[in-house]
Every structure is written in structure tokens, then in C-alpha cells.
């Protein structure tokens, strides 16, 4: 799914991603259509400082996401620095609450869910899922609330945007790298980066379950919009058919589809 809304640090405008690097002057931003106030804002200056200082990190996990070491400063100083980094990060994540999921917007759904709405219910799925041998349930919950986090910067990119999959991945990885750097010297940055990459690569049992959660949540939401707004959103069910990887995902998807058939019968009465 995708959105045309703008951010503060990186912007998605049509099919172009604009990166606010230290070398991008305010006049350049003005030519791109962004206000001078954005280019000179505290958020921009902070982003530029973070970007220019990132080269001092001594360790990389091989994906462009720095696994930052623990700080050796005193507790008081560490908490102060940590608080500043945390609020910078959380302020950026605010866009997840305000950016609507583009698939619903493109189909004229009234009051469509936000990106964070989608991730929150996926987190609940991890919370209530049955125990599965070899699967870390807590990790599933964390992965669910991280998997779309880069969309706080790049927006919700959909196939209708005409952006190749490789380019979409590159933009999201660059955005995630920036978000991790915002957290400063914090092991949580490493954890977020690793969870996101694990999900993207579909490389573990937890990733496969959360990938299924992503599809399950989408078709459940589609069913709810069909019932509440009398819309035909069959394309979302067709797009996920045969693509569930786990027994849990298949069972939940089958239950949703069975309820859709019952609701169709009620509508036709």
C-alpha cells in the first residue's frame, strides 16, 4: 500500500524519494516544492547532524544498519541522551499514525486505517497466537510492530506507484538505516534493524508467521470494509490466495473467508 503524504526527513513525491542529506541546501528543497521552513527546521538540522556523524560508527551488520554499542557514560548523562534520541525517533514514527494505507485510499474506502493501525493489530495477533514449536512468540510481536516502520519516511508504496521492487527495498532500507541512527548509541537500534531485515528476507519461522499476519490482517480489514461500507474488495482476497506459508496463517485466513461467505449470503437475502 502507498501514500502521497510528505515527511520531514525523506519525502515521497510521486515516484521520487528526496533524501535530506547535509549537502541538500534549503534552496534545493524549495525547488522541489517544499517550504523553506522545513529546510531550516530543527528536525532538518538534527537529521543532517545525525547523517554526517554516522560515519563514525565502527561496526556494521552488513546491511547498512549499524549495530551500535552500549554507552559507557554515567547513568544521568546516558538517560538524558537516550531520552533525546527516543523522542526524536518517536516523533518521526508519528507519521505511521497519520499516513493512511494507500490500498484503501485508492479504492475510496471511507476513513481508512493508518499504517500503525495495521501494525498494531498484527502485534495483537502475535500476542494471542497459539504456541508453535520452534517459534519465539515475543519475537513475532516485536517484528509485527517493526515490519512497516520505514514507511514513516518513504510512505506506503504500492504496485500502482510503478516503483520496481528493488528500488522500493532500497528506499525502505535507507529509511530504516536513518531511523536506527536517530536512536543514537543504543542496542535497540540494532534489534530494530535485525528484526526488519529478518522480516524482509523471510528468513526465519517468525518472519514467515509475521508475513502471514500481514496478509491475514489485510483480508480481515477488507472483510470489515466490505461489511461496513458495502464495497467489493475481492481483489485483496485473490491477491493472497495460496500465498500463506504457515498452518497458523492458513487457518486464520480460512476462517476469515468462511465468514465472508456467510456475510455474502446475508447481503443477498
TrEMBL record:
Q: Which GO terms describe its cellular component?
A: cytoplasm
Q: Which reaction is this enzyme known to catalyze?
A: a 2'-deoxyribonucleoside 5'-phosphate + H2O = a 2'-deoxyribonucleoside + phosphate
Please report the stretch or stretches of sequence annotated as the HD domain: 115-219
Tell me which EC number(s) this protein carries: 3.1.3.89
Q: Name one GO molecular function term.
A: metal ion binding
The alphabetical list of record keywords is: Hydrolase, Metal-binding
> Which cofactor is essential here?
Co(2+); Mn(2+)
Query: What InterPro entries does the database record attribute to this sequence?
Result: HD/PDEase_dom (IPR003607), HD_domain (IPR006674), YfbR/HDDC2 (IPR039356)
The record describes the protein's role as: Catalyzes the dephosphorylation of the nucleoside 5'-monophosphates deoxyadenosine monophosphate (dAMP), deoxycytidine monophosphate (dCMP), deoxyguanosine monophosphate (dGMP) and deoxythymidine monophosphate (dTMP).
Q: Which family does it belong to?
A: Belongs to the HDDC2 family.
Subunit details: Homodimer.
Q: What is this protein called?
A: 5'-deoxynucleotidase
Origin species: Acer negundo
